[in-house]
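Entry 14. Structure prediction run on the chain below.
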Amino acid sequence: MALLAGKSKAENVPVRTINLNKKMDTEEFNDELPIDAPERKRLPLLLRRAWYGLNQTFRRSISHAGATPDQFTVLRTLSEGDPAGLTQSELTRKMSSDPNTVASLLERIEKSGWIKRKPHEIDRRANRILLLPAGAEKLVELRGIAKNLQANLLGTLPEAKREPFLEELAQVADACQAAAEEAARKKRD
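Output returned:
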């Protein structure tokens, strides 16, 4: 949801290394239940349920516009990025996606006439991806729907808790990213 709110603050937060092997004390939860007890709310299931519900709702809300949530994310990320365009690897990182998914997505978006690729000025192996006027128009159309959806969903929280919730969610997202990077490093080593 933070992506729909505007520029993610997560990019400016220093990444910290976390120890995946560290055991948490049950005292940190002030009771005797294990962290993965069925009676507890569990992070992976909550994140998955929230993402799936948000994605499906947004997908249905914009289907008439001939776009998908991932296409919206590409258009939005490009509009908020370097005016000279982003490389595919920069876009992949900013979207928290994988290179193959983004490559396929860019091919479909390019065929729609919303983006174009131009050779990178220094790196001959890379292209810069630019948002075209038709893509900027499509973004404006989709962005209003995204803003309304986010306002409705965040409206379930008291107003004073909305921004702190997004900030804390960004911290969790950063920790998840750091854990994924650490796991990848361990696998390589």
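DSSP finds seven helices and three strands in the chain.
Filed with the rest of this week's runs.
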